[in-house]
From TrEMBL:
Source organism (scientific name): Lupinus angustifolius (Narrow-leaved blue lupine)
GO MF terms held by the record: protein heterodimerization activity; transcription cis-regulatory region binding
The protein, known as: Transcription factor CBF/NF-Y/archaeal histone domain-containing protein
Keyword Phosphoprotein in annotation: no
InterPro entries: CBFA_NFYB_domain, Histone-fold, Transcr_DNA_Rep_Reg
């Protein structure tokens, strides 16, 4: 009896040890997946968009093929065109697919354009181009500000760095009214008083 209890205990201990090892293996696999996901996100955030573009193009192509297959109507053994009622849904799906590949919402850009001139007609391709141009501009602007941040050996990017870039680089002159350099209240009052007395 005692020997059978010992054998049972040994078998149970081996099972527990095997379960622990299996859990450790699963944990390692999860950690590897997390590290891989973090690396992919880091690559995307560092500007390595080649993989992202390829994945998004593949996803767009496959979704288009699926839509074509789903929307074909079979009549007497032949397929006819797409369902007319689904055009709006298809357009919305296309916008969702495109919005995954762009930084800014397409509808918001369209709203901004309509806000400037309600009678303007802008094609979908033009809106995508505006989206991409805005994305590239902001990337360059923040990169220039980040470079200034690194030069000053600061750990975080601040308004001061953005204002410095606007004031020092000619290509950002158009932003001088929107991102002015910080000025102390005393200096602003002195400048205002000296400007007011000099003109009168």
């Amino acid at each position: 009896m005692a020997s059978s209890n010992k054998e049972k205990k040994i078998v149970e201990d081996k099972k527990e040890q095997k379960n622990k090892e299996d859990k450790k293996k699963e944990q390692k696999v999860k950690e590897k997946k997390e590290v891989k996901n973090k690396e992919e996100k880091l690559n995307l955030s560092n500007g390595n968009l080649k993989q992202h573009k390829e994945k998004s193009l593949i996803a767009l192509c496959s979704s288009d093929l699926k839509k074509q297959d789903n929307n074909a109507i079979v009549v007497n053994g032949t397929t006819s065109g797409t369902k007319p009622k689904r055009k709006r849904e298809e357009h919305e799906d296309d916008e969702e697919d495109v919005s995954k590949t762009h930084a800014f919402p397409i509808n918001r850009i369209r709203t901004v354009i309509k806000g400037e001139d309600p009678n303007s007609r802008v094609s979908h391709e033009a809106i995508i181009a505006i989206n991409k141009a805005t994305e590239k501009f902001l990337e360059q602007f923040t990169l220039d500000a980040y470079t200034r941040c690194v030069q000053e050996r600061k750990k975080s990017l601040s308004y001061m760095h953005l204002a410095h870039v606007v004031s020092k680089e000619r290509r950002y002159d158009f932003l001088s009214d929107f991102v002015p350099g910080k000025v102390k209240a005393e200096d602003a009052l002195k400048e205002r008083n000296s400007g007011g007395s000099g003109g009168g």
